[in-house]
From TrEMBL:
Residues 531-622, 634-725, 749-841, 854-945 form the WSC domain. Residues 1-22 form the signal peptide. This is Heme peroxidase. The lineage of its organism: Eukaryota, Fungi, Dikarya, Ascomycota, Pezizomycotina. It holds the Pfam family peroxidase. It comes from Dendryphion nanum.
Length: 955
């Protein structure tokens, strides 16, 4: 029968040479297949499941994508013969789209989704098999075991797909040819017809108009079909009894007196049987094809391991990422991931390579954490292999790639900095080859389109001899060029081969248009000036930071730019090319490293060095003057005090000034018994310290005076207090914290900033916001995660921002913010036009618009639901980042993020849009709190630089 929906899968175990189950040693032939099956969302997500997630996704009106994916697999396999070993799941369906047995748009639509995942490392037939797993799992079905190693056909196969008008005997013979018994035939049909519909457009003699759902839950992989058939209430026209003539399901189900279909009414039986039936389907392959073990997720999987000759040939830079499976680990249990490596001759190194967290990812059944690393290793010793040490709160575990170690070969090194792809399509590839090795060749694999409607391209491999360019130390540098035709470069892969060693599986995306010559001189990019001096290259574990007082990230980072940002601190340093950190002391965990460890160019000046992954280029501010509490004639400095409960500590008079200093406040208070400075520019006077004010740690008063950065002027609800000589000292001169008051504004991890005036026309906090009937300090803080400030207002309103509005909102008495929170009546959530504001104690890195190779950030633009600006494609992700959106929209002229989790692509503006102020795009990306992802009706917009890249972030 012709399956109207994503129908079924059958596979043969007995006729194929299948390996026994064993742990896979990385790298393996199934690595690409494992990726598209396991990484659905988050960091490095491949997006394979997007077209069928959720299960209700349609390719057209009433056409369920998941059903079409399963139907495609069945039609590809159904012409196979397990007796002769000819055909099976071999992607011959690509050559059979116009066959009379393959009616409807399902096959072309499905294959067009699949083809972008096809490459020299992943056959289309393996992609079709992965599609069965993905579609079934997305719709709530069982996890189908998938093996890799299928080989694609190069021409159409025989006919033989079951047709809806066939007799029971014909069906039995056809399914027997595929490797199914009579009972399994019934089971398979029930499983295959749990999703989707039959359409009148393709089968008007079965469905007169519209569509006929196969059961009442067409977007759920469940046993509704068998239940409704046995109960006699099915609406599936293929299951209607005679006199209906094209009733394949009824013919199959009734062929054993309905005994098998009755057993399928049990939910557990249905899921278990369907798992077996679908696995059988995808394991039917031509004779000679050897399938791998069942694909299971790696516990540890490296990505993008790359050696690069650096520092004039004196070292090799080793970069990459490590993926750790976290399915069985509690969230946050990993405290570190290290690479313990051996040098070129196999001797163990005493210094492990550190890594930093780079992202999280999820699949249907598994979760993963990623860790990035970058280290410079002396070229004389180099590296040959490594093990991965995962440190957790419960102990450490070493992964050695099933005893093989994770191999690294430095005989042939692809040199990305010296390679390029110019505007004419000419690819130039450079490689460093250890002296004494064979002369290398450049090998390029391109995809050649076939005649329409076949979407499957053929692969063509070209080999180009490489010529010597220069030599440095232990290596000779070679180069070769290859010119692409048309759009071949977009999908091309290439590698460098020398005898039995290679550095391969490279992509053209991200290559610059101009090659940079190899610099054979060591770097000297650590500028000094009278304002600052270089201190060395230091390690930075990230938790805690080497410099933890303040930080920022900037795509135009330079040493001078970081020095200016950190001008009020004694130390500053740059990391990972674009990050800047400040502090007055270096954390004890930070150690001095070799200068070559800091090897990344500054994003704003490539001639300067800005650290590396977990490495900080450290500088000392020569003009640093530590802030003090200056002596004031007639007064003694008393200490840092909290504001009093229910009122001001000093309640007589006050003033505010943008050029406030301690001396200016003393003059204003004109002989008062006490004066104090708060929040950088506020001055308060009083004859007494009011009750409830207590002495606090000196570090709580951490804001510099607005008019003199060498003096301290309190902080939020903290005063630097001076006492007139001769005035009695207050009783409470030691640090004392009153018992917690459940109604007082307090929240662990935050400082209460105050009660501020807030209006609709001038919001104190202008970032994202919401109304919540369960509003509380805790829920609003969670909603505003990633922002420096959050505030609650009018009981049920929550606001976020990176800073308070300018000009500074008016600070009012605490009792003016007296409305109980909607979700916790013991907390006060502002009032009408009053907002209760908190500031995070977590070190704050302001969000930025990251550097995306091949694109320029254009600005913040208007958009609306009814008149979208970019309409080529879109997707939503609760862990959105700029990198994800750039990857999803790769090649589009424009891409933009909106409302935190939305991504839009387009080659033109479909509707009018206006460039607005940057502050309008104030939502941080949920997957990276250091980036902006638009706002409500606001797009953070990026435009492609013609002839450059395809949207790869450098974060």
């Amino acid at each position: 029968m012709i399956w109207r929906t994503s129908t079924l899968t059958w596979a043969l175990f007995t006729c194929q040479h299948l390996m026994t189950s064993a742990q896979v040693i990385w790298p393996a032939s199934i690595d690409e297949l494992e990726d598209i099956m396991m990484l659905n969302a988050g960091h490095r997500a491949r997006g394979f499941a997007n077209a069928v997630t959720p299960c209700t996704k349609e390719t057209g009106p009433g056409r369920l994508a998941a059903a079409e994916w399963i139907r495609t697999a069945f039609h590809d396999m159904a012409t196979g013969n397990t007796f002769t070993g000819v055909g099976g799941l071999d992607a011959s369906i690509a050559f059979e789209i116009t066959s009379s047995e393959n009616v409807g748009p399902a096959f072309a639509t499905t294959l067009n989704v699949y083809v972008p995942f096809f490459s020299s490392r992943l056959s289309l037939s393996d992609v079709i098999a992965a599609g069965v797993y993905t579609a079934t799992r997305s719709c709530g079905g069982p996890s189908i075991p998938v093996r890799g190693g299928r080989i694609d056909a190069t021409r159409a196969g025989a006919q033989g797909v079951p047709l809806p008008q066939n007799a029971a005997g014909t069906f039995r013979n056809q399914f027997l040819r595929m490797g199914y018994s009579s009972t399994e035939m019934i089971q398979f049909v029930a499983c295959g017809h749990t999703l989707g519909s039959t359409h009148s457009e393709n089968f008007p003699d079965i469905v007169p108009t519209g569509k006929s759902d196969l059961d009442t839950t067409p977007a759920a992989f469940d046993n509704a079909g068998p239940l409704e058939y046995v109960a006699g209430i099915t609406k599936n026209r293929l299951a209607f009894p005679p006199p209906n003539k094209k009733n394949a399901d009824w013919v199959v189900y009734s062929s054993d007196g309905n005994a098998t279909i009755r057993a399928m009414t049990n939910a557990g039986t249905f899921q278990s049987v369907c798992r077996t039936m679908f696995q059988k389907m995808i394991d039917v392959v031509p004779s000679g094809v050897v399938l791998s073990d069942v694909v299971t997720p790696y516990e540890i999987k490296p990505y993008d391991l790359q050696l690069t000759l650096a520092d004039g040939g004196s070292s090799v830079q080793f970069t990459g990422e490590i993926r750790v499976r976290t399915t069985q680990r509690s969230k946050g249990s990993i405290t570190g991931v290290q690479l313990v490596y051996k040098d070129r001759i196999g001797a163990s190194s005493s210094t492990p390579i550190m890594s930093t967290p780079s992202g999280e990812a999820t699949g249907f059944d598994d979760t993963f954490s990623f860790f990035t690393f970058s280290a410079n290793i002396p070229v004389q010793s180099s590296i040959s292999s490594f093990n991965v040490l995962v440190k957790t709160v419960n102990g450490d575990q070493t992964y050695d790639n099933n005893g093989a170690g994770f191999k690294v070969d430095d005989s042939v090194i692809y040199q990305a900095p010296q390679s390029c792809l110019d505007g004419s399509g000419k690819l130039t590839v450079a490689a460093a080859v250890r002296k004494g090795a064979a002369v290398p060749n450049l090998q390029v694999v391109v995809q050649i389109p076939r005649a329409s409607p076949n979407p499957l391209p053929s692969l063509s491999t070209a080999t180009v001899p490489m010529a010597t360019q220069t030599g440095t130390g232990l290596y000779d540098v070679y180069s070769a060029s290859y010119s692409f035709s048309g759009s071949q470069a977009q999908s091309a892969e290439f590698g460098v081969f020398a005898d039995n060693v290679s550095d391969k599986n490279k992509r053209t995306s991200g290559l610059p248009t101009t090659c940079i010559p190899l610099d054979t001189s060591p770097p000297t990019s650590t500028p000094s000036s009278p304002a600052f001096s270089f201190q060395g290259c230091y390690s930075d574990a990230g938790a805690p930071r080497a410099l933890s007082a303040s930080g920022s990230a900037d795509d135009a980072m330079t040493v001078e730019r970081c020095a200016a940002f950190c001008s009020t601190y004694q130390l500053f340093g740059m990391e990972y090319g674009r990050e800047c950190y400040c502090g007055n002391t270096l954390d004890a965990s930070s150690n001095v490293m070799g200068l070559s460890d800091c090897s990344m160019p500054c994003s704003g000046n490539p001639s300067q060095t800005c650290g590396a992954g977990s490495r900080l280029s450290l500088y000392k501010n020569s003009k640093f003057v530590a802030p003090v509490n200056p002596p004031i004639t007639g007064y003694n400095y008393l200490g840092c005090y909290s504001e009093a409960d229910g009122g001001r500590t000093l309640g007589d008079t006050d003033t505010t000034s943008d050029d406030m200093t301690v001396e200016k406040c003393a003059t204003f208070c004109n002989g008062s018994g006490y004066f104090g400075l708060e929040y950088s520019k506020e001055c308060y006077c009083g004859a007494i310290l009011n009750a409830g004010s207590t002495l606090q740690p000196a570090g709580d008063c951490s804001m510099r005076c607005a008019g003199n950065s060498t003096e301290w002027c309190g902080a939020g609800r903290r005063l630097n207090v001076y006492q007139k000589i001769g005035v009695p000292t207050p009783i409470s001169t030691t640090i004392s914290v009153p018992p917690p008051n459940p109604t007082a504004p307090s929240l662990p991890g935050y400082n209460y900033t105050g009660c501020f005036v807030d209006t609709v026309s001038q919001r104190s906090l202008s970032g994202r916001n919401r109304q919540d009937d369960n509003n509380s300090y805790e829920s609003c803080a969670s909603f505003c995660d990633g922002y420096q400030y959050f505030g609650v207002e009018y009981g049920h309103e929550c606001y976020c921002a990176d800073k308070l509005s300018s000009p500074m909102p008016e600070l009012r008495k605490d009792d003016e913010c007296s409305m109980p929170c909607a979700g916790n009546s013991t907390e006060h959530c502002g009032a009408a036009s009053r907002i209760t504001v908190f500031k995070s104690l977590t070190m704050y890195t302001p969000p930025a618009n990251p550097l995306v190779f091949g694109y320029n950030y254009t600005g913040c633009f208007t958009d609306s639901v009814g008149a979208r600006v970019l309409q080529l494609s879109h997707y939503f992700d609760s862990n959105m980042t700029i990198a994800k959106c750039a990857t999803f929209c790769s090649g589009s002229k424009y891409f933009g993020t909106q409302y935190g989790g939305e991504c839009y692509c387009g080659d033109n503006f479909v509707n009018p849009t206006t460039n607005v102020q940057e502050k309008d795009c104030s939502f941080v990306c949920p997957g990276n709190k250091e980036e902006y992802c638009g706002a409500g009706d606001r797009l953070s917009l990026w435009q492609k630089i013609e002839g450059v890249g395809n949207g790869t972030t450098t974060e």
